[in-house]
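> example.struct
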């Protein structure tokens, strides 16, 4: 993995976070000339496809692939081109010809990456098995994207099937592709071997991911069975969490014994966020709360940010930190802690405001949008400091290979 690729990933994240900060600003000082929905599309696409996707691609190529990397490097640059194209088109036209073209280019890049990697990553250990399923979920998620065009032309954007296709894509991107990929990398770092416990986590993870799609599906399809399918998925996910904690407890404790305080905190924060995410999904089994969660947008945003920032991004920071010879550790440290502080502030605000809304406790938190803007600004500052640190650092030669000899 080359430093310039890492720098581009962090740059994409900084741009996505800055767009998010600007969206917060528009709530405080509404400004004409900007389409909020278009900016939201740009923010979400750059965060998902420019930061998380490309970061995972960096680690997959650096940790799992042997031999020539030329085609992967070329693929990275084409994918980055697609990200830039989306950045320059979504804010001005939303979903239209140019932005859809670049989004389609990104999807085809993901197919090539999956094809190359699935050929080389053999299911000989838990890390490889999880990564293979990560790619399978990534491919499956794109079915939702391909359904959007026919749905719009036949039924229109107001159709529940249009929203269902979007939720399908997001569910299997987040809970499938992203989550399975970062868990795979963690299993590889810890060198977790095959065993009964890993098999249980693996099977329960796959099945619960598929079944819990019934929850967002229930927002648009009026079938009682979806409640029970989601309930089963949530229960299986809780069992999976129990086995996962049991599986990781000893090897993670051993791994972190001689690691920096920052590394320990990043892992602990990510695991704690994952626990909150799973427990939060238990509440989806309560019909009233499930309905309110769908109606109140900030609760949905809070859950997505908990997943994307608290779990995925925290683990990615830890993986990047492990891969670098940090020239200015204080810069990366301060950036990481500011980022974590920003997550805590924004999540507390989003979920507290959501509970006030659901329980009808009043008009909401005073200066809510101002404090949300401040929390988001802290996030942006943290990412900026980490980007500066990455650009000043060098890649540890062979550091990834040493951790992945079992591939």
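> example.seq
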């Amino acid at each position: 993995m080359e430093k310039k690729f890492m720098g581009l990933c962090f740059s994409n994240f900084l741009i996505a976070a800055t767009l998010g900060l600007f969206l917060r600003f528009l709530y405080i000082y509404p400004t004409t000339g900007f389409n909020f929905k278009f900016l939201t599309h740009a923010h979400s696409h750059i965060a998902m496809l420019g930061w998380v996707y490309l970061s995972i691609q960096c680690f997959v190529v650096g940790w799992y692939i042997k031999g020539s990397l030329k085609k992967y490097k070329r693929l990275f640059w084409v994918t980055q081109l697609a990200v830039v194209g989306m950045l320059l088109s979504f804010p001005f036209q939303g979903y239209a010809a140019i932005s859809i073209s670049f989004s389609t280019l990104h999807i085809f890049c993901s197919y090539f990456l999956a094809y190359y990697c699935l050929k080389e990553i053999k299911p000989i250990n838990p890390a490889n098995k999880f990564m293979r399923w990560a790619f399978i979920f990534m491919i499956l998620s794109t079915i939702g994207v391909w359904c959007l065009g026919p749905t719009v032309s036949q039924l229109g954007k107001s159709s529940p099937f249009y929203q269902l296709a979007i939720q399908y894509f997001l569910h299997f991107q987040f809970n499938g592709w992203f989550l399975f990929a970062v868990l795979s990398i963690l299993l590889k770092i810890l060198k977790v071997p095959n065993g009964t416990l890993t098999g249980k986590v693996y099977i329960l993870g796959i099945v619960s991911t598929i079944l819990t799609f019934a929850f967002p599906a229930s927002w648009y399809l009026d079938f009682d069975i979806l409640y029970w399918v989601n309930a089963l998925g949530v229960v299986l996910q809780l069992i999976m969490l129990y086995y996962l904690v049991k599986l990781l407890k000893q090897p993670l404790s051993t791994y972190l014994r001689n690691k920096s305080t920052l590394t320990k905190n990043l892992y602990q924060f990510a695991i704690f966020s994952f626990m909150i995410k799973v427990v939060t999904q238990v509440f989806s089994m309560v019909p009233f709360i499930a309905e309110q969660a769908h109606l109140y947008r900030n609760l949905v945003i809070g859950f997505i940010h908990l997943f994307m920032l608290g779990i995925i991004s925290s683990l990615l920071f830890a993986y990047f930190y492990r891969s670098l010879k940090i020239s200015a550790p204080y810069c990366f440290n301060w950036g990481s802690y500011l980022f974590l502080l920003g997550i805590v502030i924004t999540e507390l605000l989003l979920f507290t405001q959501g509970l006030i809304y659901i329980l009808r406790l009043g008009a909401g938190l005073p200066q809510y949008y101002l404090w949300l803007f401040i929390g988001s600004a802290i996030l942006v500052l943290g990412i900026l400091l980490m980007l500066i640190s990455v650009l000043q650092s060098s890649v540890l030669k062979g550091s990834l290979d040493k951790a992945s000899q079992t591939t």
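> remarks
The beta strands are 324-325, 394-395.
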